[in-house]
């Protein structure tokens, strides 16, 4: 409380224009730290979420799907689409040595015009063998899916208990999944049997001209490699011995994403450093000019009995007060710019973007405020030391 009753607080109000200019610089420092850190952290969290949700070592798809970028479009970009291969492939893959877990998935895209409530990607899984989707359902506190029940991604405008329509067939929303910050947030998840029902409905209502029985095909096969085997060995074995399919290492799907993320992280880091160097140089110059203008004021304070240490302390308190106010404003602006617009940022960057948890965000905010406050105080310390060593009498005679 002494700080707010003393000269430092009075000086803050006595020259509002000067104080506001320094507050803006401090706000810039804290905003750059907070916003930059949150953006980079959100990208890293989103990438980790994507890798976790993909959840397998190997994904096997029809060969033509891998050559047309369809796989990356559906899995990473959220584009609607589908591809199928003969179910006999699943049996062949089951006999490959070195596989510990294997499960088939179905893809089906819906349309919004006349047949469906949403234009989304529908992903089906086998509850008896699945090891990628069901852990996510459990994390979201979702129960087991029944016939014609679905889970919806976090970004879809549907909630537990709602009824939605795909190709004239009504399905019940069992629950809403936790946000991942990826394209998976706009998909619908259900069992393979429900997807087969929807495929038949699409055919019967003449939305698709499928020339196969849904019981005879699958879209992809997910594989986890057993201990003692390498992913590369199992992947090469599949590509060598199973015809008309392509096995890809799941992590390779996010390699491009990781490279883009690394590039953005480097750019953000360079910008933060550049902003800090520029802002601190400006603050040092500004404090130096301000202190020079206030030499007479400081000389009078010395004459009336203030010690050099007390004068330096007053100057540092004033700069710390200004820097603290500015840094709080900067963090507040960062929160306003990032949190409400996280989906927009994700769309613009076209990368996984998942905000960190509250504890981490609060910690970054506190560190940003502290760092900007300390930087402001240190910027004034050089001028404070120089002013405190001046001879008060010489300054007053020169002014007179």
Give an account of the 3D structure.
By secondary structure, the chain is α+β, with helices and mostly antiparallel strands. Helix content is about 55%, strand content about 15%. The strands form 2 sheets. The protein has a 9-stranded mixed sheet. The protein has a two-stranded antiparallel ribbon with strand order 2-9. A hairpin with a 2-residue loop joins strand 6 (about 165) and strand 7 (about 170-175). Helix 3 packs across helix 13 and helix 3 (about 15-55) runs antiparallel to helix 15. The protein is elongated and about 95 Å long. The model is unreliable at about 1-5 (pLDDT under 50).
Concise overview:
The chain is an alpha+beta fold. It is 57% helix and 14% strand. The strands form 2 sheets. Strands 6-7-5-8-4-3-10-1-11 form a 9-stranded mixed sheet. Strands 2-9 form a two-stranded antiparallel sheet.
Estimated structural class: alpha+beta
| Radius of gyration, CA atoms, in whole angstroms | 31 Å
- Overall geometric form: elongated
Mean of residue pLDDT?
81
> Approximately how much helix is present in the residues?
55-70%
Low-confidence blocks of residues: 1-5
- Name the beta content range: 5-15%
In N-to-C order, the SSE pattern is HHHEHHEHEEHEEEEHEEHEHHHHHHH
**Side-by-side strand order of the widest sheet:** 6-7-5-8-4-3-10-1-11
Number of helices: 16
User: Sheet with the most strands?
Assistant: 9 strands, mixed
Task: State the distance separating the first and last CA atoms.
Answer: 36 Å
* Count of distinct strands: 11
């Amino acid at each position: 409380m002494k700080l707010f009753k003393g000269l430092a607080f009075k000086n803050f109000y006595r020259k509002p224009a000067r104080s506001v200019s320094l507050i803006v610089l401090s706000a810039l420092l804290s905003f750059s730290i907070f916003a930059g850190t949150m953006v980079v952290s959100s990208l890293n969290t989103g990438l980790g979420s994507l890798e976790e949700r993909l959840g397998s070592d190997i994904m096997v798809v029809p060969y033509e799907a891998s050559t047309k970028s369809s796989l990356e479009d559906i899995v990473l970009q959220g584009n609607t689409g589908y591809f199928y291969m003969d179910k006999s492939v699943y049996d062949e893959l089951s006999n490959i040595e070195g596989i510990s877990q294997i499960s088939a998935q179905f893809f089906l895209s819906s349309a919004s015009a006349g047949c469906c409530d949403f234009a989304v990607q529908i992903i089906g899984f086998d509850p008896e063998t699945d090891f990628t989707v069901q852990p996510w359902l459990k994390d979201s506190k979702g129960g087991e899916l029944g016939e014609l029940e679905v889970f919806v991604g976090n970004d879809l405008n549907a909630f537990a208990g709602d009824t939605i329509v795909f190709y004239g067939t009504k399905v019940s929303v069992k629950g809403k999944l936790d946000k991942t910050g990826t394209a998976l947030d706009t998909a619908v998840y259900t069992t393979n049997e429900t997807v087969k029902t929807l495929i038949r409905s699409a055919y019967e209502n003449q939305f698709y001209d499928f020339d196969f029985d849904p019981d005879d095909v699958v879209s992809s096969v997910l594989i986890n490699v057993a201990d003692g085997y390498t992913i590369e060995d199992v992947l090469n074995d599949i590509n060598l011995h199973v015809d008309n399919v392509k096995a890809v290492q799941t992590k390779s799907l996010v390699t491009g994403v990781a490279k883009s993320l690394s590039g953005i992280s480097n750019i953000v880091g360079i910008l933060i450093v550049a902003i800090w160097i520029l802002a601190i140089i400006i603050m040092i110059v500004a404090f130096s000019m301000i202190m020079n203008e206030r030499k007479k004021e400081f000389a009078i304070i010395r004459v009336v009995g203030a010690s050099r240490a007390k004068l330096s302390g007053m100057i540092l308190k004033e700069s710390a007060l200004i820097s603290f106010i500015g840094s709080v404003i900067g963090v507040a602006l960062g929160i306003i710019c990032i949190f409400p617009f996280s989906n927009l940022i994700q769309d613009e960057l076209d990368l996984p973007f998942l905000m960190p948890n509250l504890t981490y965000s609060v910690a970054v905010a506190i560190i940003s405020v502290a760092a900007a406050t300390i930087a402001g105080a240190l910027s004034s310390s050089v001028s404070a030391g120089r002013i405190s060593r001046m001879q008060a009498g010489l300054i007053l005679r020169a002014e007179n």
